[in-house]
Amino acid sequence: MARIPPFLVRLASALAAEHITKRLVASPAFNRMVARMLHEVDHLPHRINGQPVPPYTPPHGQQFDLPHKDVGEPHDEPDPFAKAGTTRNWTLQQETSQHQFFDDFWFWPYGDPTHGTVAYQSKSAAIRQNLTYVDQSTGRFVMRADSTSFIPDTAAGRPSVRLQSQNTMSDGLLVAKISSMPTGCGTWPAFWTVTTNNWPSGGEIDIIEGVSSIDGSSSYNLASLHTTNGCTIPSGASNSSTGSTYQDDCAYQPGCSQHFQRGNSFGVNYNQNGGGYFAMLRDTQPGGNGISVYFWPASTPISQIPLAVRSAPGQAPHRVITSPYDLAPGGNNNSLNLLPDKTYQWGLPAAFFPNTPAGQTVSGGSCQMDNFFEDHSIIINLTFCGYWAGQVWSQSECVALAPTCDEYVRNNPHAFENASFEIDYIRIYSSKSSRGHGSIILGNGPGLLRPAWSMLAWAVLVGLVAGRVWM
């Protein structure tokens, strides 16, 4: 009998494995199986410790970047002014509400990078101390700081929560409805995205950030970018946003930033108005607009808020179609003016950071964003004092309460009874059309891939199916 050369056996095996894998990844049933298996793996410690496992909820939209046939959706939100060849197709990739936050985010139990008077808690510790839960009366996800304990000087600080997304995102649309945010002297709440690389390489985008005062006078949100050297934005007032530039150099700290115009976009006034809606549109690929941050107070007539932003969980449009802004020259200084028809229903952003082509400047700003922004994790956190709230303490009215921010935070637990986020939902739209931009990447920890568990899951499942095929 003629012997088959070993290299042909290896080649045949490789081709067979490739064929099986392609068939598997194209199968919706297989993808549901993978998602279910990863859910079980994520909650393996619960089973080992005899703790209840949260019910499995299939992900909304495509969670994995796998081949699929796009047959369209009847529930899309198009831009009627979009031009062929210039549109961005943003598809709903993930929607998080209620108990799904415990699966889609992980709890950062480490020290505070901003050196705040805070002790971030693990998931189990946060649940045990009632620092995170779903409010049964409202259905909102709550994350808060401890408001009962006096904190000794030997402890890191007041117990609090920092959430970081399991998945990472790049270009796309990030939406959040937040009905309440932390307030009180010394608080420093934030909702932001940040590189999985060595900061600031890869960038940071701050969507909600500020430090609270006694009377709510610090009620204007600040949106910021942090990058390596070489990215600047136009200074002064802008025709392309309702905000105004506070810092124009995006490098490191403090980064570049724009103050919101609305006085109810942060802090006490924000909460008294019932919260609001935020959306961050990131379009940093060559030819893209840049980074826009939108804000609608809860008091905004519902018809003036885009469907992708205002829709309740499970009811959002599957796809949002937009076109890049037409950036028209204004006067002799090449300033930016968004043409009105390109802001259909969305209006002007509260903050806008333009993406400029290589070698060009706009109103003195220059930032070719694809050189500065990579895949980002999504973070929601509440810290105290630190680099910002601690440094401005002596210039604020809060100094009348205690000589230092650290002393106040440690010794006044009841002052933080309102130091909490109440989040209705977060959703992510993205595109799969460009060099990795817009993909939701399956990850774990600080934006890192789950190589061990993912490879094990694939190996086991492929092996089982292959075994059935060849039996």
Automatic annotation (TrEMBL):
It comes from the Eukaryota. One of its GO terms (biological process) is glucan catabolic process. Residues 66-80 have a biased composition (Basic and acidic residues). It holds the Pfam family GH16_XgeA. Residues 54-84 are annotated as: Disordered. Coiled coil: none annotated. One of its GO terms (molecular function) is hydrolase activity, hydrolyzing O-glycosyl compounds. Gene3D superfamilies: 2.60.120.200. InterPro entries: Beta-glucanase-like, ConA-like_dom_sf, Glycosyl_Hydrlase_16. Residues 46-351 form the GH16 domain. SUPFAM superfamilies: Concanavalin A-like lectins/glucanases. PANTHER family: GLYCOSIDASE C21B10.07-RELATED (PTHR10963:SF24), GLYCOSYL HYDROLASE-RELATED (PTHR10963). This is GH16 domain-containing protein. It comes from Tilletia horrida.
